[in-house]
């Protein structure tokens, strides 16, 4: 296939109901196909590289039966999309959310393959999870769900096979329960999951890694324009792990963080957050509206997204497709000149098109949020070497990886980091694919 439309139509028709997956594929093909559309890349067509990259090596789907605190039987759907093992064992997070379906997980696994390739670490790509809603569940309910999920899932993972981690709805508590059950079923204590507690095999900074990495990446973008974070007005969406540690590192580096949000609305503090305020937000859980009751410099905008707030930098750290074209328009009209994605695919295709047309400095998630999986890769290395590394060692490595990803994207994209991420990721994956034969 040599033309973008023909290639995309073929893939879209094969996966006709998978909107998120088709969106992620089309975004990548738009950059890749023109790039390889010359005789130098004839062998890529001969070996059907693109067709194989979009077809998961394996998809596992299973029933998860558990009982809630009222002894009612509950049934959920568990999944793992093992996208490819070109560069290492399958690697990627688990998401527990009622919105989980195969399209979402295939898009995430596809993005993961480019992201993991960019880290420079020996990581294949996968994504999984369940349509289970952890909100409002007791600790015992979460535990029983995780145990039941693992009763089936343990057959398909292992330190040299597939190493899951957390994603939305799966944090250290869930990883703990999943690991405990994996250990019981396999009789092995080894690194079959990452994001573990640092008491028993986890890496320091894994929790902070995505947010810290995002800020390290953003600082490279700023530096290329002779700018820095100091005093910059920053708008962040989300209130989970990624948003929280993004805000923390931005504040440490003297950025002026104005907003955080969740699905109930956003908080906007015109004086900006400091570490004490952030700590308070961390304790509020879902009830972020209470922030404005304590701090008179703040408002809570119910059911709204923070993209209407004037800023220099926008960091979407909540979820996919949270920035629509109108949101991007508001951001740009209000002076925003940098957008870096902490979430996976938070900007719609139309939003990205506008952002690029207006020459906004834009970093795609597969590059800018790679810090999380990168530190997962470092956790695997520590587990394999039966050692623990200090916080400063992990932090230095994380920073070096993010700086390297920035350089690679810059080099391959000529100023377009999204294109650079797609091309650099593709070149490595395609080469591995051709070298490993028709599998
Ligand atoms: O989207 C992601 O990169 C993650 N959820 C982290 C995956 C991992 O294996 O650490």
UniProtKB/TrEMBL annotation:
Binding site for NAD(+): 210, 241
SMART domains referenced in this protein's UniProt entry, alphabetically: ELFV_dehydrog
Catalytic residues in the record: 127
Gene Ontology cellular component annotations, sorted alphabetically: cytosol
Swiss-Prot/TrEMBL keywords: NAD, Nucleotide-binding, Oxidoreductase
Swiss-Prot/TrEMBL site (Important for catalysis) positions: 167
GO molecular function, one term: nucleotide binding
Any one Pfam family match given in the protein's UniProt record, by short name: ELFV_dehydrog_N
Domain Glutamate/phenylalanine/leucine/valine/L-tryptophan dehydrogenase C-terminal: 203-437
Binding site for substrate: 91, 112, 115, 166, 376
One of the GO biological process terms: glutamate biosynthetic process
Domain of life from the UniProt record: Bacteria
Subunit structure: Homohexamer.
Family: Belongs to the Glu/Leu/Phe/Val dehydrogenases family.
This protein's name: Glutamate dehydrogenase
Gene name linked to the record: gdhA
